Amino acid sequence: MRVTRVTAVMAFVFYVFLWVLALNGVSSLVPVLAVPLVIALLVAVGVWLNRFMGITPRAQRFQEPPPAPPAQSGAPPPLEAPERPTPSEGAPPVSPADRAGPHRDVDAASSDLGDASR
């Protein structure tokens, strides 16, 4: 037997063992053990329904999609955002005031208006 088959058989034996425990008094295992049975039943009904309706499964394809057609000569090239230089590339460091944007310190704005309000 191969390793995968041995593993599947051992998992099934362990599952049956847990059902034996559940039927002999460990009733808290019943809901947990019922979940795989319900999922297997739902999958089996779905497969049966597909076959009953005549739906054939599609063949799996693991191929690369065809390459995109080349761009037309009259079309403009796609726009790209300009790259901002990082401080390590020689860009000036950004001060905290520049990071704040148009919202400046309230005290600085009131000092500018202080003379006009008198």
What key attributes describe this structure?
50% helix, 4 helices, 118 residues, mainly alpha
Provide a short characterization of the protein structure.
With 118 residues, the chain is an all-alpha fold. It has a domain at 26-57.
Description:
50% of the residues lie in helices and 0% in strands. With 118 residues, it is mainly alpha-helical. The chain has a domain at 26-57. The longest helix has 24 residues, at 30-53. The N and C termini lie far apart (97 Å).
Tell how many strands the DSSP assignment holds.
0
The largest β sheet comes out as: none
The proportion of strand residues reads: under 5%
Q: Encode the helix/strand succession as letters.
A: HHHH
Characterize the overall form. Answer: elongated
Low-confidence parts: none
- How many H/I helical runs? 4
Question: Layout of helices and strands, plus pairs?
Answer:
Elements: H1 3-23, H2 30-53, H3 96-100, H4 106-114
